Amino acid sequence: MRLVLLGPPGAGKGTQAQWLKERFGIPHLSTGDMLREAVAAGSEIGRQAKAVMERGELVSDAIMVGVIRERLSQPDCARGFILDGFPRTLAQAEALDALLAERGEKLDAVIEFAVEPEVLVARIAGRFACAKCGAGYHERFKRPRVEGVCDVCGSTEFVRRADDNEEAVRRRLQAYLEQTAPLVAFYRARGVLRTVDGMASISEVSNAIARALEDVRS
Ligand code: AP5
Ligand code: MG
Ligand code: ZN
Questions:
Q1: For residue 53, which of 178, 162, 127, 170 has the smallest C-alpha distance?
Q2: Does the beta carbon of 123 sit less than 6 angstroms from any atom of ligand 1?
Q3: pTM value?
Q4: Which of 8, 166, 193, 206 is the most buried (most CB within 10 A)?
Q5: Residue-wise pLDDT tens digits, 151-192
Q6: Distance of alpha carbon 31 from the chain centroid
């Protein structure tokens, strides 16, 4: 199963990827997570991306396509993958098509999360993640089962993202509307687009995605 999750910041891409990767046994490739790891590690890519990400702007297509090319060549991607946050521009979408064509592969589905911009700020403002395993939570919509303890790994340390402030979120939304939203028409024209209502509850969105993928081979 080769999937792309498409939607604005806070739409729920990372949240839904957490169960999709278990369900299909394929890796979750979040370019945002990869860049945050590069920043934390102080690598060359991390140094180039840090300020751009903190402003809420997009990292260059050249860097992103290089990162994805390298990641897709790893053996765990042979049976499929879930792309979260890539592609984000038409140039990235075309580069992905070309990369997959080289491998004799193509996307099975692109899941679009339809959301109203007003909910996104509230979602992002309440978001936090486990410092150890990265599992995502929300102060109102997804609290850990035991207060202050990660459901997945038991860690008691949590972190918030450097770009989750109002100013950067507004820029991220603007970048989505200007540079990423055109991908909806791009993928609709290719017949792979499936749109789900991202305003519903987390479990309802999961059910909608499961239904949308029923007729897609795994
Ligand atoms: P990235 O990390 O991809 O951030 P983003 O696209 O802004 O998306 P988010 O991670 O904020 O949202 P999400 O949809 O994953 O929401 P989540 O599931 O966490 O990118 C960060 C930066 O990296 C970019 O700004 C850019 O600079 C750079 N970058 C990355 N990829 C790039 C690329 N390809 N090209 C160029 N630059 C790139 O949900 C949010 C919260 O809401 C959570 O707390 C969750 O618990 C809660 N929630 C989720 N679903 C629901 C629901 N249905 N109901 C209620 N609450 C919900
Ligand atoms: Mg995310
Ligand atoms: Zn954890």
A1: 162
A2: yes
A3: 0.95
A4: 8
A5: 999 999 999 999 998 899 999 999 999 999 999 999 999 999
A6: 7
